[in-house]
Write a structure and sequence with these properties.
Length: 345
C-alpha cells in the first residue's frame, strides 16, 4: 500500500507498507522502485540524513525490507517531474557560497515550477544564475528547494546547491531548529502583546486552494505560530510571527483563526474592509492602502540556521519591501490623525 501526502510543504512524504509476501530487499532498491524520479543517490542521502524510517526507526540504505514493514521517507522537494529551464530573471541574492544561496524574494514571484506555472519562477532564475544558461543535469546539483514562501509573500528563502546541503537543511526544518520570523500587517487591534496560536491546519473541504484550522486532532497537520505586537494603528496591527512548524499558508490561516486576517489577503478575505468606520473618506483611505500594497502584507524578515556543511551559525535579516514600508507609514499617519475623520491621505 502506498500513500503520498498531497500537501507538500517542506518535504515530499511517502509511506509504504510491505506486502505479506515481500521478499528480503534493500530499502534503497525498494524505494527506487516505488518513488518516481527519485535517484538512488537521493535516497541514500535521505538515509544518511536520518530521513528514512522502518517501523518508526531510522535505517541505513542496506536495511533489508521484511514482510509488513512500514517504511516512511522524507525527501526534500521537488522530485523533478519535468525539465527545468534556466531563465535570466533578476534576483536579490543576499548570500551565496558553494552549498547554498539566500534570496530575498520579491512579491509576485512563484518559488518553483508546477503544473500551469512552468516558467518565471525563482527556481528558473536561480538555475540561470548557477548554470550560466545551461540546462541542469540530473547529478544531484541544485537548485534544490528546502522550503518555500507563497507567491505574494516577500522575503528570505534558502536554496541548496547540492543534495548534501538540501538534506541537512531539510533535517533542520523538520527538527524545528530553523529560525524564521515574519512581519505582517493584520486587521484589528490585537489584544495581547504576544501569544501562541496552535491548531491543526488542513485544506478546506469546500475549496482545495484554501486552508483552515481543525479542532479535530485527526484532521490536518499540527502547526504552531508565535506572535508579538510590533506597533498598533487602531484598526490594524503590525505583528511579528515566528514559525515553529511550516505548514502551507500557516501564518495566514492561524491569524485569520484568531480574528486577525492579513491585510489585503484576498484568499482569506483580507481584501475587504474588516475594521474601521463607515465614513466614505475612511473607505477611500483603505482602498488607497490596497493599491499601495496589492497583496497580503506579509514579509519573511529573518532566517537563521546552521550551515549544512561547516556547521557555522548563519543569520540573515531583510528590510521590509517598499510596498509594505509605504503601507505601514500610511497607517501610522492615519493613527495619528484619525481623531479627525477627514484624514484621507
Amino acid at each position: 500500500m502506498e500513500y503520498q501526502e498531497e500537501d507538500q510543504e517542506l518535504y515530499e512524504h511517502f509511506r509504504f507498507e510491505a506486502d505479506k509476501g515481500q521478499g528480503l530487499l534493500r530499502v534503497d532498491k525498494f524505494l527506487m522502485s516505488r518513488i518516481e524520479n527519485a535517484s538512488r543517490n537521493k535516497i541514500q542521502q535521505a538515509a544518511a540524513a536520518g530521513n528514512i524510517f522502518v517501523n518508526g526507526l531510522p535505517v541505513k540504505p542496506s536495511y533489508k525490507i521484511k514482510p509488513q514493514d512500514v517504511i516512511t521517507v522524507m525527501l526534500t522537494f521537488p522530485v523533478h517531474e519535468f525539465k527545468l529551464i534556466p531563465e535570466d530573471i533578476d534576483l536579490d541574492i543576499v548570500y551565496e557560497d558553494n552549498d547554498l544561496i539566500i534570496v530575498n524574494k520579491k512579491p509576485g514571484m512563484v518559488v518553483h515550477p508546477a503544473y500551469g506555472n512552468y516558467s518565471g519562477t525563482l527556481v528558473n532564475a536561480v538555475l540561470f544564475h548557477m548554470q550560466n544558461g545551461n540546462e541542469v543535469r540530473k547529478s544531484g546539483q541544485g537548485p534544490l528547494l528546502v522550503h518555500r514562501i507563497d507567491k505574494d509573500t516577500s522575503g528570505l528563502l534558502v536554496v541548496a546547491k547540492n543534495e548534501e546541503a538540501q538534506m541537512s537543511l531539510g533535517k533542520q526544518f523538520f527538527d524545528h531548529s530553523i529560525k524564521r520570523r515574519y512581519v505582517a500587517l493584520v486587521w484589528g487591534d490585537v489584544k495581547l502583546e504576544s501569544g501562541t496560536i496552535s491548531g491543526n491546519i488542513g485544506r478546506s473541504p469546500n475549496n482545495r486552494k484554501v486552508f483552515m484550522v481543525y479542532n479535530d486532532e485527526l484532521r490536518g497537520k499540527y502547526a504552531v505560530t508565535h506572535y508579538r505586537v510590533i506597533e498598533r494603528f487602531g484598526y490594524v496591527t503590525l505583528v511579528e510571527c515566528e514559525l515553529e512548524t511550516g505548514r502551507t499558508h500557516q501564518i495566514r490561516v492561524h491569524l485569520k483563526h484568531i480574528g486577525h486576517t492579513l491585510f489585503n489577503d484576498e484568499t482569506y478575505g483580507g481584501n475587504d474592509i474588516l475594521k474601521g468606520t463607515t465614513f466614505s473618506k475612511y473607505k477611500q483611505f483603505v482602498n488607497n492602502c490596497f493599491k499601495i500594497c496589492p497583496r497580503q502584507a506579509l514579509h519573511a524578515k529573518i532566517l537563521g540556521f546552521d550551515h549544512p556543511v561547516t556547521g557555522e551559525e548563519l543569520y540573515f535579516e531583510s528590510d521590509l519591501p517598499q510596498d509594505m514600508l509605504e503601507l505601514v507609514e500610511k497607517w501610522r499617519n492615519y493613527a495619528i490623525h484619525k481623531s479627525s475623520d477627514e484624514y484621507t491621505d
